[in-house]
Design a protein that fits this description.
249 residues, seven-stranded mixed β-sheet, 10 helices, 14% strand
Length: 249
């Protein structure tokens, strides 16, 4: 299936598309002010440009972030008094350092709700001592839920962000947490791999699972169903979230 986004958005991965949109809005604002237009008109032009850039992304939260970036930064820079207008980029830079570009492309930091995995152990019925991997473990919310489901399992987590991996290891004692790329991690030792990813990454994840995991092992995807693939089972949490289970043939 062809990606319907503009070519710029396909070339510039998130959050670079947002940074580019915000920078363009600020450039338009400063250019119009230099030409002698009043602040309100220049700000309106920057706002309109930011709204136009929403088409760079399909996900609603990303579109909102792109549109809101310029007016929010403009308001904050006005409140900041003598600070430079671009000072608000500093915390964003810290965020990018803590959460690398590759992690943004896989999925944003969405913690797994505590009860989202209820019933998983009964559905897959794994024996004691199995190995379970949380691919993209973040701060460890899913690992805690997995521990509740599989108290005798050997739990592993892999996280691209060094800061999040350190925090996850601290929050989840007894779990093997490593910093690394989930796509380069070998999934063959695991009996179950848990994912809370974007829908676009699920075909790649299932292809990796089929290539590396043993027959009879499981892949669990919270919230999102893999397009074009029939799930073995579907569990529904109390909050309405779905847990899609795929057993490897």
């Amino acid at each position: 299936m062809l990606d319907p986004r503009p070519r710029f958005a396909r070339v510039q991965p998130w959050p670079l598309s947002a940074l580019a949109a915000w920078a363009a809005a600020w450039c338009a604002h400063f250019a119009l002010r230099a030409l002698g237009l009043d602040t309100a008109t220049a700000a309106l032009a920057g706002l309109c440009l930011g709204i136009a850039c929403m088409r760079f992304e399909r996900a609603r939260w990303r579109r909102v972030a792109i549109a809101a970036g310029f007016p929010l930064s403009l308001a904050l820079s006005g409140l900041a008094g003598a600070l430079p207008a671009g000072w608000w980029l500093a915390p964003l830079a810290v965020l990018i350092l803590a959460y690398p570009m590759g992690a943004w492309r896989d999925a944003p930091l969405f913690p797994t709700p505590p009860a989202a995995l209820d019933g998983l152990a009964q559905a897959v019925r794994l024996p004691s001592g199995v190995r379970v991997l949380d691919a993209g473990c973040g701060l460890g919310h899913a690992l805690r839920a997995l521990r509740g489901q599989f108290p005798r399992a050997e739990l592993h987590g892999v996280e691209r962000s060094m800061a999040l991996a350190i925090a996850c290891a601290w929050r989840c004692p007894g779990v093997h947490v490593t910093r690394g790329d989930m796509w380069r991690r070998d999934w063959s030792p695991y009996d179950l791999v848990y994912l809370f990813q974007r829908p676009e990454t699920l075909p790649r994840a299932l292809a990796k699972a089929r290539a590396e995991m043993r027959p009879g092992t499981w892949v669990a995807s919270l919230e999102f169903e893999a397009p074009g693939v029939t799930a073995t089972r579907r569990l529904s949490a109390a909050d309405g979230r779905s847990l899609w289970l795929y057993r490897l043939p």
